[in-house]
Every structure is written in C-alpha cells, then in structure tokens.
Amino acid sequence: MKLIILDRDGTINQDSDDFIKSPEEWIPIPGALEAIARLNHAGWHTVIASNQSGLGRGLFDISALNAIHAKLHKQLAALGGRMDAIFFCPHTPDDNCNCRKPLPGLYEQILDRMGIDANGVLSVGDTLRDIEAIVAAGCEPHLVLTGKAEHLRGHTLPPEYPTHTTVHQDLTAFADFVIKRDKAKV
Fold first, then answer.
1. What is the Cα–Cα distance from 5 to 123, expressed in whole angstroms?
2. pTM exceeding 0.90
C-alpha cells in the first residue's frame, strides 16, 4: 500500500492560533485538495494525523470536529479525491499522552490500523513537531512551507530540523514531487 500521512491545520487548510472550531473556519489552502486528489489518482492512500487539543480545552466538541471533517470529505470528493481515515489527538499538552505530536503515537496507530510498517510511508507537516513525530515513527519527512512554516520561505531550514527532511512550497509542490518520483521509478 502506498500511504501518505498528512497533518491537517496549516498543511491542508489555513491554520489559526485561535483553533479551527467550526466548518466555517475550515478553509482549504489553495490547491491543497486538488493535490490530494492527484495523489489519490496516482495510487496513493491518504490519512490525516492531527493534534486537536481544542477538544481537550473545551473550545469545540466532537460534533463540530465531525462537521469540519465532513466538509473536508465533501470538498475532496467533489474533486475526485478521498481521505481514507482521519486520526486525531484530543489531548492538551498537559495530558502527557503518546498520541500528541511531537510524539509518534498517532502515526503508530495509523500504521497499525493499516497493517503496514513505516518504510516507504511519506508524511507531510508544517511544523517542527510534525517532522519530529514523523521521524520518530520512522516515516519519510516532508515539510510544506505553509501554515506555521510559511515564515521559512526563502530561508535555510533551521538546524533543529532533521537533515533528511524534504521541503516543498505547498501540497501542490509535494504532489508534483511524489508523482514525478513515482514515474522515475518505473
């Protein structure tokens, strides 16, 4: 199975320091959903791994989160794409769980549920904690310069990022990279 694990806020949709609390606040980054659909058409399965501490903080409830994800599914389906699953950590930083990024618990849950190991699994995020969780889980790290990483555009990646992190301007550029790499392997 060809699998890509994606962060949500800042990678697929616009991020907010005030949290994404409703479907109205969930706004896809231009081209992101189209990029996911292109990856799906190229044979890739896609799954989300997302910290959603707004649940644990009481800023929104599971019904609101489900409505946000229903909007994502509907907009993606309209483009001929799909999200195979959405995994999220509802905990706050004080809960000391294993599923909150930068720890690898969400990724381990995904790999276990999909019945595959991390070898060959690509994963994309927009923060250092995403990349740390990706690397800790043994997946291939990709950083998009959207969301929280937008300030890194035009700069050298800071030394705290693993040297084998591949950097892309956005999900469109990531999809271009993956599809081109797949074609080169044939």
1. 5
2. yes
